[in-house]
Amino acid sequence: MIGGHRHANSNHTVAEGTMRSIVLTKGVPDFSEGAVSFDEDGHLERGKTPTVMNPNDEFALQAALQTKVRHGGHVTGMSMGPPGYAEVLQGAMETVYADDTYLLSDRELAASDTWATAITLSAGLEKYQEEIADVDLVFAGFKTADGETGQTGPQTCWAMDWPIVTHVIALDIDPDERMLRAKRLVEGDIDEVETVEAPLPCFVVTDPEFEPTYRKASHRLTHKELRAETQQRAANHDDYLTMWDHTDLNLDPDYIGLDGSPTIVSSVDPIPKAPSEREATMIDPAEDEIAPVLEELQPHAAEAGD
Amino acid sequence: MTTETDVYEHYEAVVVGCGPGGAAAASRLADHGIETLVLERGTEAGAKNVSGGLIYAEESAPYKIDDLFDGFRERASERPVTDYYIHNIAGNAVKTYDLTDLHEHDTDWCDAVLRREMDSWLEQRVHEKTSETGGGVLTNVHVDGLLRENGEIVGVTCDELDPIKADLIVAADGVNSELAREAGLMDWEEPDEWFQGVKAVVDMDPDAIDDRFDIAPDEGAAHLFSGDLFSDVRGGGFLYTNEDSLSIGTVFHLDSLVEQEAEPHELLDALLTHPVLAGWFQNEYHEREYAAKLVPDSKKVAHRRPYRDRLVLVGDAAGQMQAQGPIIKGMNHAVSAGALAADAFAVTRGNRDPEAAGRRYTKLLNDSGTMDKLRPQRYELSRSVSEHDAVTNAVERVLDSPIGSLAVGNPIADRLLERAYNSPFLVSMLPDTKTGYVTLPTLIAEEHGKTIYWDSDVEPPSLEERIGDLTYDTDVGNPHIELLEESYEESGAAVTACPVSAEDFGGGCYRSETVKTNGTAETLVSLDTQPCVECGTCAIVADTEWEHPRGGKGIEFREG
């Protein structure tokens, strides 16, 4: 970018087709205060509770957006669920400025567990690769807010037989070398971060600590341009949405939905409230700090002794 | 050989700040087909901007803002000023002069503005225009310094972005321009080179405004106030009508504020609660926003050669704020300067000399007459005599004597005084002494004024309430101002002069406390930047290391 006069617009033109990403997202009941509805037995009333995008997927979307802003290309949002999940994908389009969306939707898919979901999603990804385009990156969120399951992403990846990087908090892509460099949390611990490399195509599971970074003005201008462009697209989301059912995906009903789900949910128990916070004071026994504490405890000890 | 800076992004022009100066520069650069990046530290342009509230379009100016931005008056401004008055006040006696002639001199039009609305509208237009030539506007970006290569300015550094190189750097980063200071072109040294303004935006129904100011919905009023209501502090007050609010403020010489140890918010309250305003409020007072701003006195600080290497300064950053007697003109000059800087770059583009654009810009400022308005020759000639203390004292004694009352107090003098106030030539020579601000207006009111026999029931909010009503995105643990010297001698003036601090008030930026050690008592000053409105006063009156907060952080003005 140095020397001589460059053609106007060269700074932040999105290079076409360099990176193709798919973001997996799902709808979850809106657990926010006031939105969630329970029946008398304390069971969630799905019908009365609005569906929103799984909050952890936000970070997967941000990672895909960062890839598109920095390297250009195409972002597809993909989800499995009832037709109503189209709204979730529309929301994803608004957040991630996705170019188009795919919804895998079929009565046969109802009551899928994570395994059956992963089988279905991988079939969707395979079909996408065969009919639409080769995919460089698949992004998934850390876990769902409803089931607290975090295995759908990794299981889908296993079905694809791709490399996977999880707990990603920062991401760099080298499109020429077709390599990905990620900072990830080791054991999910924020104090321990490692940098790993993986070849593309690759599966990326983002951690809620993921933060996109845009240190170039051109990237921020592209980001702003995409935002304006996508607001219009999201308003006409139906024009950009493709629905695939189990015949489109060429899936045997015995291996999907309830029949294809090896796990069975026997019951759901409410989680007991966490105990209220207690204050703790660190005492150094080597110093003279222990004496006042003992003094304080003395009457209680005496009581116990009585 | 490639150097480290070769990897940096490059734009033909980088404009820092998207107020009227930066917007005019960027708009003209885009007109010339130049790739222009605009970096604005506010979350939206206008979020960091405050002005008293009048923008002028001068007939003699090289550029007017509506030439550059079609639809400006319909979309971005408030009411036009059709009525203009000055009120000379002595106690409850008020003598009012019609200043419309002075106001209309060389004025094509003049509108009241609120800066959040105005500047955010400009930002959108600028982004549309600059996007077409490969650039655009980015908000929430704080440009914190200059990028140098072999000692020469070649770009900017930012908190949020990697360094950026440019063939032209326009510093339109306001009165506290960090770029102008880093380049060594401006400083924060002398209080007598600055004014400080504080302002309240007060809610008022449009119909009530029409009725109480006796104007039509497409008309507006401006009122100025001077005299003894501000004690001996040199300065005055103003009131402008907006669509559905009033902008009411006071502007004082900073050196006078410091000398008198005056509290700016109390001086504003003296105006707000004066009976002369009571008829307009009719016992209703709802303050939307309290704000403050430093005003450069262009007569003293407008830089005659506002450039270094590839850097040019425009608007407040270059000290281009003209106090023409009671009328303050800043935004119009920033617009002219910004557009001229862009034109200068367009004609010198490709010149190997990095200072070609700056030199050309300086010439355009002179040839267009802009520099002579900012730094009038006749002021420079008369200043050395008229601001001399002995002269001031002599004139003060005459005005104080029976002869003074006789001279100012006769009916012929009344007519002459109104004419004198309306003479742009005379007001541009008015010395910055007590005489023009306090003694003369007070005497006029005493001799010619009508006495008001009612009181005001207005109770303005306390400083604590005003700060509480402001919007901040505090950069926790990252204060942008550092107090270098905590002794009261060096930094104590900030406790009173800071518009969000006061003696015996613990909730402001600056506070003083007496510390007793080993039997000796010492008064020390401490600083908490949380309530800071980024006016820059303390950079001048205290010993600080002063920077703006990071992009999007700090105060966010809603009205401005």
From TrEMBL, chain A:
Q: Which SUPFAM superfamilies match?
A: Adenine nucleotide alpha hydrolases-like
* InterPro entries in the record: ETF_a/b_N (IPR014730), ETF_b (IPR012255), Rossmann-like_a/b/a_fold (IPR014729)
User: Per the record, a Pfam family?
Assistant: ETF
Q: Which GO terms describe its molecular function?
A: electron transfer activity
Query: Domain named Electron transfer flavoprotein alpha/beta-subunit N-terminal: which ranges?
Result: 41-230
Q: Under which name does UniProt file this protein?
A: Electron transfer flavoprotein beta subunit
Can you name the source organism? Natrinema hispanicum
From TrEMBL, chain B:
Molecular-function GO terms, alphabetical? FAD binding; oxidoreductase activity
- The protein's required cofactors: FAD
Q: Which UniProt keywords apply?
A: FAD, Flavoprotein, Oxidoreductase
Q: Specify the FAD-binding domain's residue ranges.
A: 11-354
Pfam (any one): FAD_binding_3
Q: Report the protein name in the record.
A: Electron transfer flavoprotein-quinone oxidoreductase
Species, as recorded: Natrinema hispanicum
